[in-house]
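Morning. Coffee machine broken again, so started the prediction first thing and wrote up yesterday's gels while waiting. Chain of 81 residues, entered below exactly as on the submission form.
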Amino acid sequence: MLRSTRALLLLATGTALAMGGCGKPPPPKVDAAKEQAEANARARERAYGGEAVKALDQAKGMQEDMNKKALESVDKAEKGN
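Came back before lunch.
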């Protein structure tokens, strides 16, 4: 009797553990780009760390400006040859 009770208890525990996750809904889907944009907007508005985000935006703007100037320089050099 002891073995069958133990086996029944193990079977019931295993079944309960297996069925525990069956009724849970799937986690909500998150749009990573939207979350990142919202986080950047919040970071710009706060006092601590806002300067770093603004500096990053300024650096990206400088990068775009440098790329534009480099392309104009290459075009000008190609037309000169």
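The helical segments are 2-19, 32-45, 50-80. Going to sketch it on the whiteboard this afternoon.
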